[in-house]
Amino acid sequence: MEFRTKVELPVGQGEIRHSDSISLWGSCFAENIGKLLSDNKFDCDVNPFGVLYNPLSIAKSMSILLDGKTYHEEDLRFDKGIWYSLMHHSSFSSTDQSECLEKINLRIVKGREMLGKARWIIFTWGTARVYEWKETGEIVGNCHKLPDRLFTRRLLGVEEVVSVFGSLLKKIHLINPDAQFLFTVSPIRHAKDGMHGNQLNKAVLLLAIEKLCREIPSCHYFPSYEIMLDELRDYRFYADDMLHPTPLAVNYIWECFCSSFFTADTLRIMKDWQEIRKALEHRPFDAKSEAYYTFLSQIMLKIERLKEKFPYLDVQNEIALCQTRLKK
Asked: Which of 106, 103, 131, 122 is nearest to 29 (CA)?
């Protein structure tokens, strides 16, 4: 007997391989999945503007990359000794204006390069509520804890999201015609407007994605939100705030993601890499012993064999780590 509701996974919609470049955009759940992909040696670029929650902020950020914009002093704000951008996460902020601009522009260059070659572009939308800067009426990416009176807050409409994103995807296809777009809705609940408000948020996102997937063949959907709500509906799968999924829940959704988009060959590469990764994390009793040097040499050999078989894997950091430890 089944004692839970199983969510149907989109098996067969597409394959994600280690030879594919991947660009990820969206909420902190995108960061979680991006880290898991990177840890398993996929070529990823995660959130060039930092965490973004609503689809229109994501679309605006991507358009900035596609248009080749460079940030200058007039694009920043200065408050309480900090330079920051209303389109960027606070991780880009700095007490030094030049440092802030350098961090922003370096990520723009890398993000634009990835958009041009990414086989998969993954979007994780968190909320359909946006903040508009009253001075200009423009939607911002981050409020930086500024007073609410400086913003107008509203709920996006389904057609508004579809129109903006439909144009954006066409723009991306002009420079990268082979790109595939994978959408998911973040399982993190946005409780600021209450649970009913959260459901309205998610409903707008789900309806917009459904329409995009019907109209554009290169669009696909992965049910992160449904897995969390239907399969993992117990509160033991939520963190202390009762809004974010626990690491256990994230790992389960990741397993579902793997089952949906990875072939047996890809899973085998991941298994081989995880064995190497765990070996590298081993801390010996005596780091200068002959036995440990032999152990490191064996790891080096495994890495080199994997690289020889799959030349697109970036393993330079791990090789350098082994070489450093062998010289000690």
From this structure: 122
